[in-house]
Design goal:
alpha/beta, Rossmann fold, 2 domains, seven-stranded mixed beta sheet, six-stranded mixed beta sheet, 14 helices, 15% strand
Length: 467
Amino acid sequence: MAQAKETAALVLSVVVTGAIIGGGGWWFLNRANNPNASTGGPVAPFSTNNQASRFSDGAEILTDDINPNKQAAVEAVKSGDLPRAITLLEASLSQSPNDPEALIYLQNLRAAQQGNTHAIAVAIPAGSAMNIAKEILRGVAQAQKTVNESGGINNVPLKVLLINDDDDPAVVTQVAQALVSNHPEVLGVVGHYSSDSSLAAAQVYQTGGLTMISPTSTSVELSAAGDYIFRTVPSDRFAGSALAQYQLNRLQVQKAAVFYNNQSAYSQSIKNVFTTDLFSQGGNVVGEFDLASGGFNAQSAVQQAIGAGAEVLMLAPSSAVIDQMIAVAVANQNRLPMLAGDDAYSADILQRGGSNVEGMVVAIPWHILGNPGAEFPQAAQRLWGGEVNWRTAMAYDATQALVTAIGRSPNRTGVKDALGQSDFVAPGSAGEVRFLPSGDRNQAVQLVEIQAGNRTGFGYDFVPVGN
C-alpha cells in the first residue's frame, strides 16, 4: 500500500445514521517467558509497558473512539478491576457498537477470565490514518469474536495486543523489535499498513523469528522478504497485470501514460508490474509522470500525455498524492479512460472527483458485491451496522490465518512452519486463505468501476466490473 493518509480511506468509519455513507465492501460507518511458547498459566495483569503510548491490550485508548464508559473501563483495567472494566466496555459498545478497539479489549478481558490465552498483535496507523486503522481493527475484532465464541483455539481464547506505529518506518522498526524481544507471548503480527512500513518491519521479524501477515501491503518486494513474512492482500503482481490486461483486452488500446509517486514502494511496484506486462504484450507506455515532484502540474501533464498519443491514463498514486491524482482526473475531463491501483479506492475520489472519475477502473483485493451472499459480509453487517471494505476483509483473513496456524503449532516457529505448508488453508472472507511459497496470497484481484449510484452518499459508487 501507499503511504497512509486518512483521506485515502474508503472506510466503514462511522455508524450509519439514516443513510449509509460508505460503499462497495467498505461503506463508512461514520463519517510468558519462553519466547516460543504461548501464554501458559495465569494471564499477566493488563498493563502498559515502557512503550505505553503505542502498545495496549486494554489499558490505553489508541483510537479516537472515546466515551465516558470506555475511558472509565481503561482506568478500571489499570487498577486491576477487570469485572468492572468488562461491564463498562459492554456499556460503551451499547453506545458505540462499531468501535473495534472496545470490542477487542472486551474480548481480551473475557479471555483473561478463562486463564490461558494465545496472543497475537495488530499494528495500526492510528496516528496518521485513523479511519484506515479502524478498518483494519474491525477485521481483527470480528475474527477474534468469531474464534472465541466458537471455543477459542483448541479451547484457548485469543488475545490481541494493539500497536500504533503511525505508519512511520522509523517507528515501525522500534515496535517490531519490541514485539520480538519484549513480548514472547505474541505468536504473530497482523500488519503493517503501507508497503514501506511492512518492508521495514519484515527485516526485524525475519531476523527475530516472528511471523508477520500484512493485510494491506502489496509491493512486489515483500515477496522476497523471508519465510516469516506473509500477506493476505494479493501482490501488485496480480493488480498491475489485471489492469494491463483490462487495457489491452477490454479497452483494446495500446498506449498508456502512467502517473505515480516516486517516493512510494507501493506506487513504484504497481507501476513497474503494469509497465512490464503492457510491454510484454505489445502495448506501450508513452509517458511517466511523478505525482510527487515539486513542479508537478496536472493540466500540463495530461496535455503532454495526450500529445504523446496516450489512449489510457494509468494512475498509481500512493495516498500521499491523492490530491494530485484527483487533479489529474479533473484535468482529463473524461477524455481518456483511467485505470488505477487500490489507493484510488477512496472516499476522496468519489466525493471530490465526482463526474470526472466516472468510469475509472480500480484493482482491489475484495469487494462486497463480488460475493454478497457469503457469510463474512453478512456477519460484518450485523456486527458493525454497515458494510466493510477490503482492508477489513484482508485483516479478518490475516487473523484467521494466524489462528489456524496457532491451532496447528502454538509457538513462533510452529506458526511460520504451518503457514508455509503446501496444505495450509484457513477460512477467509471470500473462501479459503492459501499462500504461495513466496508468502503471497494465492488469490486474484477484483476490478471495480466508478459508476453513478447512491450507495455511498456521494452520487458515485465502486461497482465490480461486469455488474
